[in-house]
Amino acid sequence: MDDDRSVERVADALRARVGCTVDASVRRRVEYSSDASNYRVRPTMVVFPQGDDDVAATVVFARENGLSVTARGAGTSVAGNAIGPGIVLDFSRHMNAVRAVDVEARTATVQPGVVLSELQRKLRPHGLRFGPDPSTQDRCTLGGMIGNNACGPHALAWGRTADTVRELRILDGTGQRRTLGTDLTAVPGLANFTTANLAVLRTELGRFDRQASGYGLEHLLPEHGSSVAKAFVGSEGTCGLLLEADVALTPVPAATVLTVLGYPDIASAADDIAAVTRCAPIAVEGVDAGLVDVVRAHRGTVPELPRGRGWLFVETAGATPAEALAAAELLCTTSNADDHRIVTDPAATAALWRIRADGAGLAGRTPDGNPAWPGWEDAAVPPENLGTYLREFATLTAEYDVTGLLYGHIGDGCIHVRLDFPITDAPQRFRTFLFDAAELVVRHGGSLSGEHGDGRARSELLEVMYSPAARAAFSGFKSLFDPDNILNPGVLVAPNPVDADLRVAGLAPFPARGFALSTDSGDLSTAVHRCVGIAKCRADTRTSGGFMCPSYLATADEKDTTRARARVLQEVVRGELDWRAPAVEESLDLCLACKACASDCPAGVDMATYKSEALYRRYRNRLRPLDHYVLGQLPRWLTIAQRFPRLANALASRPYLRRAGMRLAGIDPRRAAPRLAPTSLRRIWKISGRNGTRAAVETASDRGSRLWKVLDRTDTHASDGITSAAYDLDSARSHGVGPAVVGAPHAREVMLWIDTFTDTFDPENALAAIQLIEQLGYKVTIPNTKVCCGLTWISTGQLDGARTRLRATLDAVADHVATGGLIIGLEPSCTATLRADLPELLPHDPRAKQVAASIRTLAEFLLEHPIWQPPRRPQDTVIVQPHCHQHAVGDFDAERRILKAMGVTVKELAGCCGLAGNFGMQKGHYEVSVAVAENALLPALRTATPNTTFLADGFSCRTQAAQLAGVPGVHLARYLLDRPQPLT
After folding, report:
1. Residue 983 near residue 941, CB atoms below 8 Å
2. What burial letters (b/e) apply to 959-969, b meaning 16+ CB within 10 Å?
3. Which of the residues 65, 294, 413, 772 has an alpha carbon 20 to 30 A from that of 315?
């Protein structure tokens, strides 16, 4: 049914039966063609059920039309459990409620689409939690956890998902609704099936806790409670579709302590499991030195670890902190570790656990930068066999010349690793490795999967692990629920080959045209296939932190995730879609190009760059949308407007003219036009006749400008800790700063980058920065010609124009940089562009990397000087909006340190402001822009206490706050010199 018109006819027929969205568009089918696995299977359509009746109607329709049905939550399945060729049912969009919480009984009733972290948030006030906690808990759904029998670090103490399930309400493959508990008669024929297979169930299944491969039929045994519900867990959507679940909860420990144990290597750490678990820890996680090295390279540093090249992170609990600490101390005396570190400080504990969390994401790349793939993701063996297994596994990977980063739930015998399989050009080696690895794990009494299920990655390998009788039992069990095999076919029973439908197999290189893509060898295919689908972009940044993906948070639509956009671009490099296809345009339309994914995505997917490349290819040498010429070349028009600022402001203030002009230019007429400054910074600089800030301020004041009055008060704030231009010369010289006299002839020079927005809208920010810099004894210069980082050209894909401006920039600043000079930027988007995009757009110009390395933010520059101290303002409260580009390229740490030293009470916002340069101005984006602002910015401004200051270095962030909340924003440079007006 590949013909799009035929698909739409079938979709229309289903739409007539259900009350929910049925989407058969090419774009949607591409978005759901992969999960977090290596596989790609394009479905016929995607359905977003709003309730049980929609699910039932869909199953009946599928049976009548010969279509399969696959259940999907967040699509984080690494084994290919959540993709299929027929109908994909996405439960996460609407069926995502926590129906009830019984605190006394310690149970909860949930729908399948509820995200685990949302359930945990609702349980927290009651001192309860759901026990299993996989690393994807901020986006994975309970339905997916039940489907895969998810575990996580605390399964050692609180069990697997199967251990929590009490009762399930499902729809089987015939469309029959069933309630599964401990009554075998709930499923016709199940009691007889169990009796007939007692020998297999008792000898081959349930041999150790992490035996997750195949069906969990051991739960049907009378000695295990005859639980049909528990047996259903881990069936991966092949036996029924979950409608509702009753699950058991566990109390949150009163106190916990983290102990890190150091060993020569991870295999030696595994050898010590018996001694460690005798102390009854609630979690035992293992981390290999290779993983720590990658985290250190990515982050720059990691917290102090005990001596060793392999570590166990062991968490002990108690009714009191002293009890938890006593358990930790006992652990250190009974273990055979070479070294240890006991941590009781919550911040230090979180920093250490972050090594494990970051490593799980960074494991998608080997230490030398090659893509590492799932497939042998989570094998498990009985813990007593783990050390030997790991040594033999190392031998096997060496024989195949593949490498990966090891970590996992060592206390349970479960190891995670992604390996740099040569799937692209040698998928047959992938297949043979998997069979050899399966033989190895079976020799050690283990399981192909310890928690992620078998899916397409391991179902064929079940023939290595189980006897024909056991596999026949699996087939018989499925047939009781799904006799026509319409539910997730090809998984567990009658499996597809492990090397079928591999997403990257046979892909040819796809050279980039716009960017160098230096970390991906210039190959756009490698770049977009960085996305392996782990879906961090679906996490709610309001609770998990980070900045991506703002449009998904606004729409809750998978199409607006970084992952979905990557899937569409993957189809383009495959040759399945054209750059000008509607699917590509629709997919990229609501990408804010905030660049947050470049740092927040564990795989390093940089969708802002890929979008720019896509727009470049789509429109090169073609007519563009008008807003590309207006907003994409905005610095050009602002240069003209700045010659007549009063006239430009007067015209923009007339509502009819403004709305008409904005509509004509492709800008949403609900937006206001920011007012130009009466005098630009470059004009002030020119008419001052010298490089001194004071002269510039006085000259501007003499000419009647009212913008600089607040800046002409430097010395009046000396009592507040503001350093004046005449600060202690002896102190300055003792630190090697040089003369502290403004304009001193031998003062060292720094260059202030005068970006278009600072120059034309907010020159007072530059004047404040100049004062701060000159107070440190530096002479400030600016580029002698008007320069531009080219960001607006980049964001609209006008890369030839961007390169032209960047070459002019290099010509203007290269001599200064060549002598060791620094460039200080005030607009975060510009500093980020010069640091990250400049070398990528001009890779063959050696000056590009030199200039990129010379860039500093004002905060970074100030903190490089020990003599500089910020003013103390412990009475102040500020709301801080870090800029997305700064978050992505570099960090916000310097600003945090300055505010902490000032004693300021800080509320730091997580997430994009929603304007994101030209995005929020473009017609068709206003509602999403506002919705993004509602995630963090607008609620914070509405609920701020009196006298709170809104601090934002980004022009877009200040503009968004001013236009949507009527709140002026203040740049850090001005905040360090002045007492700006508060919100109220």
Report:
1. yes
2. bbbebbbebeb
3. 294
CB atoms inside a 10 Å sphere around CB 517: 21
Q: What's the CA angle centered on 737, arms 732 and 742, to 5 degrees?
A: 80
Least confident of 204-213, 735-744, 860-869: 735-744
Give CA–CA dist 16/546, Å, rounded: 41
Give buried/exposed letters for 623-655 (b at 16+ CB in 10 A, else e): eeeebbbbbbbbbbebbebbeebeebbeebeee
Query: The tokens of 207 are what?
Result: 């041999």
d(CA 676, CA 518): 39
Query: Which one-letter DSSP state was computed for residue 182?
Result: S
Q: Which residue has the tokens 């076919």?
A: 489
Regarding the domain delimited by 877-977, which CATH topology (the fold level of the hierarchy) does it fall under? Rossmann fold (3.40.50)
Q: Checking phi first, is residue 111 left (phi over 0); if not, alpha (psi -120 to 50) or beta?
A: beta
- Is beta strand 823-825 parallel, antiparallel or unpaired with respect to 69-72? unpaired
Helix/strand/coil (H/E/C) assignment for every residue in 832-887: HHHHHHHHHHCCCCHHHHHHHHHEEEHHHHHHCCCCCCCCCCCCCEEEECCCHHHH
**245 to 95, 181, 838: CA distances (angstroms):** 12, 10, 52
Residue 958's nearest CA partner among 757, 684, 751 is: 757
| 403/786 Cα distance (integer angstroms) | 50
pLDDT digits (tens, 9 = 90+) for 935-968: 999 999 999 998 899 999 999 999 999 999 999 9
Classified as helix, coil or strand, 480 is: helix
Average pLDDT of every residue of the chain: 91
**Cα-to-chain-centroid distance, residue 948:** 30
* 759-785 pLDDT tens trace: 999 999 999 999 999 999 999 999 999
3-state helix, strand, coil in the chain (%, to 5): 45, 15, 40
CATH of 1-251+463-489, one of 3.30.465.10, 3.40.50.300, 3.40.50.720, 3.60.15.10: 3.30.465.10
Token reading at 197: 């297979």
Residue 178 has pLDDT above 90, yes or no: yes
Which segments of 20-135 does DSSP mark as H helices, in order? 26-31, 52-65, 116-123
Closest by Cα among 353, 365, 370, 229 to 302: 353
Per the rule left: phi > 0, alpha: psi between -120 and 50, beta: everything else, 408 is left
Which helix (H) or strand (E) segment is 285 a member of? strand 283-288
- Residue 589 parent element (H or E): helix 582-589
Q: Where in the chain is the domain with CATH 3.30.465.10?
A: 1-251+463-489
Enumerate the CATH 3.40.462.10 domain ranges in the chain, comma separated.
255-462
Cis peptide before 20 (omega within 30 of 0): no
pLDDT tens, residue by residue, 281-312 = 999 999 999 999 888 887 778 899 999 999 99
Is the CB of residue 28 less than 8 Å from the CB of residue 46?
A: yes
Of 699, 835, 826, nearest in space to 772 by CA: 826
**CA Rg value for the chain:** 30
Q: Which CATH class is domain 255-462?
A: alpha beta
Residue 443: what residue type? Answer: R
Model pTM score: 0.91
Mean pLDDT of 585-605: 94
In this structure, the strands spanning 45-48 and 21-23 are: antiparallel
Q: How far apart are CA 810 and CA 316, in angstroms?
A: 57
CA-based nearest residue to 233, from 495, 37, 80, 453: 453
Sequence-distant (6+) residues with CB within 8 A of 218 are 201, 202, 205, 206, 224, 231
Own/partner long-range contacts of 90-95 (Cβ < 8 Å, ≥24 apart): 90/32, 90/46, 90/47, 90/48, 90/49, 90/558, 91/49, 91/141, 91/143, 91/242, 92/141, 93/48, 93/556, 93/557, 94/20, 94/48, 94/49, 94/50, 94/51, 95/49, 95/50, 95/51, 95/243
Mean pLDDT, range 194-206, rounded to an integer: 97
Distance of CA 905 to the CA centre of its chain: 28
